[in-house]
Amino acid sequence: MAGKQNIRDLTLAELEQYLLSINEKKFRAKQIYDWLWLKPVQHFDAMTNISKDLREKLSAQFSFPSITVDTVQHSEDGTIKSRFKTVEGHLTEGVLIPTEERKTACVSSQIGCSLSCKFCATGYIDRKRNLNFDEIFDEVALINKQSLEVYDKKLTNIVFMGMGEPLLNYRNVLKAIEKITSPEGLGMSPRRITVSTAGVAKQIKQLGDDKVRFKLALSLHAPTDKKRHEIMPINDSNNIKSLIEALNYFYKQTKNEITFEYILFNNFNDSIQDADDLIKIYRQVPSDLINLIEYNPIEFAQFTKPSEEKVEAFMKHLEKNRVNVRLRRSRGKDIDAACGQLANKG
After folding, report:
1. Is 106 part of the annotated catalytic residue set?
2. Running DSSP on this structure, what letter comes out for residue 325?
3. pLDDT at 177
4. Identified catalytic residue from 93, 139, 165, 294
5. Given pLDDT bands bounded at 50, 70 and 90, which one contains residue 303?
6. 339 is catalytic
7. Whole-prediction pTM value?
């Protein structure tokens, strides 16, 4: 496979040119393209309306690297975690989160992560490499297939909240979303896709310049630079002031929905003073919502969950101050599929 061009790097026009160059009919390009993106398959032999001779020519000329499902775990609550394997054997994870009204895919953008957030299992794994755009597409296609097989429903939503920092794999994430939302691909609405970032101010502004159409979530998790620095080293180069400025720029350019993600840690960021500091940030950004998230303990970190009473008091204080807030209960904790738990343990 070394040295061959990945067939999914070709545009439809380039595929047409190649076929004409080997004296094949131009219309075959659309058939092949459909197999690559519309009804995605993972090898040339599955392209059943293409002659065996042409499939062999394609196989000789091009590589077709795709990720495959390595292991699958089913949670008691219906959540399904998949460990995916790349062609060279790297592992990454994705999760299908089902509710009555939604079937959500939580997908990864990198193999491991370089940000070392103190509360996240993925942060304790070295980043091996970025996932390519077609590998991210494969994750979504495979989770969509699972959703159809298990729940008889297509995916309704996608969140880039798995392993890795999406904005440090900017080009591949945007190209994957382009394929996922294209009528020639999975045809999903960009409004049903949320990209979550730990906060890369420069790239948040770039999203605005690129006029993206998906939603943005900022993993804030602490309401002051001092506290955020303790748990998220990225805050050293992307402080809260720079993120507020970047989010306002993003909203001005796109008018897209912005959400704050905020994990509650016992006796760290769960006081009424913390809530007041969070309200100050919320009021400086046209944010749609604050998602309060249950903390899911991991073996590497010392954090614990606050009591239900503290969570309730924190939430009530936000609501009393006219903050749109929602508590996101964790799913798939029994299979390490919940927020912050992805670590390729399988």
Report:
1. no
2. E
3. 98
4. 93
5. confident
6. yes
7. 0.92
